[in-house]
Specification:
This protein is mostly helical. It has 18 helices and no strands.
């Protein structure tokens, strides 16, 4: 592991700064959109723009990297991300912001693919688990630190956008100065959505619904907090709690899923997610009759006597139930396939996830416009219920099939197919298979 750190310190240093800037920018835009009196539809659209760019970037980025090379592409798209932050400060318009978010999403997924392929090249079967853990720690810590940077200056000013641009630029320095040779890009195959659904109908549908909820939690939470008149400090604390809950709940829930039917664990997580959403609605202090306000009501209408402590608690708990779902579903699908298809199945599941993530913020914004700020939780419930009911239905159709080649590995929310290769069981099993074939 020490050799990995020595050979990849530039990559980790650059990535840690970049992911901090990325986490800061996403939530800053959510807060700023409310302060600029963007309507819910405009806010949801610009948040969806990021995931649309993310989806297309995942498809085209490997081709770009294979032609130009890791370091040049990293520098180019980190520069695009830096530029996007400045453009947000110059052109305060929801349509322009949506377009900018598209290019930002394209840039971020490209950079993530570069980082993960680089780590795959440096890691071996003995240390892949440690490398993945370090990658996860940097990702979650970066997002948490980025959330706290909301207190750097007022979101209505231009200084926060300059800081983000500065951080993206700083992230370039270690990578451009490293003497280490970049890896040779490895092409990843994929399974079709039809094949994935035949393999695991419940896993496919659950991943689709999870995409809707993940994108909302990480983009619209700041919007919800600002609409509820929380201070910038309270908003940043809430966002940090959400991120930490997603990190800390991964291990205990994942360990339980390795010992019991993974489908039941997924269903229970979705069920408790619904329960905590309902609790959060009552803790918000918004009266029930305000759920049916006209769509013309503006953000600053809501002045509520909320129970802040309980709202933060239930918000963190529902995040702790929902955010481990990606890893649980990935492990569930791996239970149904041979070890040779682990990576390709992960690629296909990312496509399904992306289809939901692209439209999640937009649908949430429609619900918030129709039903008020608690439309945020109604959105989460709307896409948790199909997981519960379809999961119960599938329990009656197929029994538990134990696959010793599959185990739970907690993943960051933006893991790519190349990142899935960091799963130590996947890498080891693939190596063993190749040795046996020889």
């Amino acid at each position: 592991m020490g050799k990995i750190l020595k050979n990849s310190w530039a990559l980790f240093a650059g990535f840690s700064v970049l992911i901090t800037a990325h986490g800061f920018q996403g939530n800053l835009l959510g807060v700023r959109s409310v302060l600029e009196s963007f309507n819910y539809i405009s806010t949801g659209s610009l948040m969806s723009g990021y995931f649309i760019g993310y989806f297309f970037g995942a498809h085209y980025a490997p081709r770009i990297i294979s032609r130009v090379g890791h370091i040049r592409v990293f520098a180019a798209f980190a520069s695009v991300a830096s530029l996007s932050s400045l453009l947000h400060a110059v052109f305060v318009d929801p349509i322009i912001w949506t377009l900018i978010r598209f290019f930002h999403g394209f840039s971020v997924i490209t950079i993530l693919i570069i980082v993960e392929s680089w780590l795959n090249d440096r890691a071996n079967n003995r240390n892949r688990g440690k490398v993945l853990s370090l990658y996860m720690f940097i990702t979650f810590f970066g997002f948490s630190l980025g959330n706290m940077l909301l207190n750097f200056s007022s979101p209505i000013k231009y200084e926060p956008f300059i800081l983000i641009s500065l951080l993206f630029s700083i992230a370039l320095i270690p990578i451009l100065l490293t003497k280490r040779k970049p890896p040779k890009f490895k092409k990843i195959g994929s399974m079709t959505i039809k094949e994935l659904y035949k393999t695991s109908p419940f896993g496919s549908l659950a991943m689709f619904c999870t995409g809707f909820n993940f994108s909302v939690i990480f983009t619209m939470s700041a919007v919800y907090a600002t609409v509820m008149n929380l201070s910038i400090l309270d908003t940043s604390i809430l966002l940090v709690l959400i991120t930490l809950a997603g990190a800390f709940f991964q291990w205990p829930i994942g360990s339980v899923s390795d010992s019991f039917d993974r489908r039941k664990v997924i269903i229970l997580c979705a069920f408790f997610g619904v329960v905590f959403c309902i609790c959060a609605i009552f803790s918000s202090g918004v009266k029930l009759n305000t759920l049916f306000l006209e769509s013309s009501v503006r953000f600053n209408y809501y002045t509520t006597s909320l129970d802040k402590l309980m709202l933060f608690l239930f918000f963190s708990l529902l995040a702790g139930m929902i955010l481990p779902l990606f890893s649980l579903i990935l492990a569930l699908v791996n239970d149904r396939i041979t070890k040779e298809k682990f990576v390709s199945a992960g690629a296909g599941l990312n496509v399904i996830f992306g289809l939901g993530a692209m439209t999640g913020p937009l649908i949430c914004s429609l619900l918030m416009q129709k039903f008020g700020p608690n439309g945020f939780f109604l959105h989460l419930i709307l896409f948790l219920l199909p997981v519960i009911f379809f999961g119960i239905f599938r329990l009656t159709r197929r029994g538990l099939e134990d696959n010793p080649d599959s185990s739970f590995t907690p993943m960051p929310r933006e893991i790519t197919p190349l990142g899935i290769e960091l799963d130590p069981t996947t890498a080891a099993d693939l190596s063993n298979t190749q040795s046996q074939n020889k």
